[in-house]
From TrEMBL:
The chain crosses the membrane at residues 33-54, 131-151, 188-208, 220-237, 243-266, 286-305, 372-391, 403-424, 430-449, 458-476. TPR repeats lie at residues 499-532, 533-566, 601-634, 703-736. The lineage of its organism: Eukaryota, Metazoa, Chordata, Craniata, Vertebrata. It comes from Copsychus sechellarum. Belongs to the TMTC family. It is found in: Endoplasmic reticulum; Membrane. Coiled coil: none annotated. It comes from the Eukaryota. This is dolichyl-phosphate-mannose--protein mannosyltransferase. One of its GO terms (molecular function) is dolichyl-phosphate-mannose-protein mannosyltransferase activity. SMART domains: TPR. It is a multi-pass membrane protein. Pfam families: TMTC_DUF1736, TPR_11, TPR_16. GO terms for cellular component: endoplasmic reticulum; membrane.
Amino acid sequence: QIFNQHNAEAPNLEQDFHRMAQMEPNLDHDIPWFLLPSYWAKMVVALISFLCFANSYDGDFVFDDSEAIINNKDLRAETPLGDLWYHDFWGSKLSSNTSHKSYRPLTVLTFRMNYLFAGGFYPVGFHVINIILHCIISVLMIDVFSILLGGLQFSNKGRRLNLAPKSSLLAALLFAVHPVHTECVAGIVGRADLLCALFFLLSFLGYCKAFRENKEGHTFSVFWVLVSVVLGAIAMLCKEQGITILGLNAVFDALVINKINLLELIRKLLYKDKSLENAGLLRKGLLFRITLLMCGGASILYIRWRIMGTGPPAFTEVDNPASFADSLFVRAINYNYYYSLNAWLLLCPWWLCFDWSMGCIPLIKSVSDWRIIALAALWFCLIGLICQALCSEDSHKRRILTLGLGFLIIPFLPASNLFFRVGFVVAERVIYLPSIGYCILLTYGFSLLSKQAKKKKILAVAVLGVLLVNVMRCALRSSQWRSEEQLFRSALSVCPLNAKVHYNVGKNLADKGNQSAAIKYYREAVRLNPKYVHAMNNLGNILKERNELHEAEELLSLAVQIQPDFAAAWMNLGIVQNSLRRFEEAEQSYWTAIKHRKKYPDCYYNLGRLYADLNRHIDALNAWRNATVLKPEHSLAWNNMIILLDNTGNLAQAEAVGREALELIPNDHSLMFSLANVLGKSQKYKESEALFLKAIKANPNAASYHGNLAVLYHRWGNLDLAKKHYEVSLKLDPMAPGTKENYNLLRRKLEQLQKKGG
């Protein structure tokens, strides 16, 4: 015989847990949906969640992946593992003033494992892990929703039957196919949210297990409560939101395990009723468990605070303009507008964007702004739900609405700007966890609608249609995350006022060599945000390469005026001033750049070029030497040292520098070429020939390599080989300087030798 949860008495907490909804209605009665065995339900959810994001598996590293993965030294084997515990998510020291204080060492550790197992930066492995994680989380949701929504079925002996409640299956499917999750799954950096969610759910399930694994004479297991705290700590080490599970566990304990009526409790507190113990506060060890959760949470936060340091993260106005508003009213009204946008993304995830900052959402500065309607709608819905959660006479309804609101709101609190300033306006990734609460509320709403509907099959078909549309939207959005070009261009229609979107489209075009189109987008980025120094810097660089030096100088000068510590702009300004032959100003700009960035090898390299132009050879060599000390693989600096020493007749020193460089960068053909020239002048013909041939093998289409090897053979007396390589050089570059003259000299010499021989 089969019993639903509400059909039996519950003499202890274990039975309470199995029959949380005893004496209360079951959502499954009202949902026209499939009742599947648990393993089949989990396979269906896993398959559908996989189909949603499968086409992202072979995508590139995009957007923030470059900084968090490719440029993050913490992923490389040479970085000690211990450093991960003192660095932020992006590889910077937490003690640094420029650190964002995003402390996620376990997420970085998984990136490092991906890198080591793949043997390099191959994005496929990173993407596959993200997709698998989302599938696992979606499957776990069936168990989580079974507990939160009820509907578990038991035999007459109290054993749970292996059937997935219809309501939990529907809620898990709604979660699995939600398009707003695309950023977390298709964007590799979203691994932080996925890992956090995984341990978040495991912590919740572990806490629930505390009431199933109790031994005789004990109402709950302290061990599993502590395991839940540890799993919550692990979730926080993946991403900061993870700590909120401890609060949710406390809410679940109070409402579901102890069946506390919040409204009744508030009344008793207000009227100082002495029968508070009857409200469930002191029953079944609730206070003890909440004390464990609070102590665990406080300890985790204290350790996190000690590691992070006391200084808050440094964000700029463009990251989160509302938080920099002088008026408390403007800040409050815009924060609430941001909340309404997050809610809208859950309700209608059609307009999705990789970045919502930089003017994408203009500030509300007056109550006459029509967008105030969105705030009113949000709070109207929230207040209505809260009133129902508190005041409804239906205990089952109170429980589901309170848990739904709890899972919707509590995980979102770290991103709400209420406790500290965050570095974004709206971020789709931060609503991965809150969407659990949304799915609870939506499933409950569907059950109410189904209860009233006469044609339930039509309603079921409509829900299937919504799921299908979401699957298609996920697949489309995943394809947009496959490459930066598609991702950035997809944002142009969603956030046309976002300067960063135009900047990223321009940068992507510039990287592909389309400078003319890149200029257009960079100019638009600067127009939308006249203080966008990075756009000015990149635009100035392109104009410099196109020899539009005066406009480039204006842009770069404005950039360093707006941000005086912008080292890259100071260096680029120095390059432009050098091209304009304003050498003193260029030198000053280079040194200013180095002042703001002590370890700046590229700037030392350009400073060396300036000194070489001024014939300050010792200063040039010192600058290039500094560049190679800071960056031993700086090929251009090594080359310039060899060439300068060669040109000034210091062949022995040039040879020593060349050999040192090749030891550090053994496969650099340009270094082989430069050292071969020096060895040839030192009459070390055999060694010079070997290096020339090795350089030609690495880069066979370099005319100068063949031309200089021909000169070596010419000097050495191997005239036939000299003739061969002169001809190859002229074929590759008919205008190669000096080669044609040397070839004509050789031909005349060969003709003279033939006449003598005749």
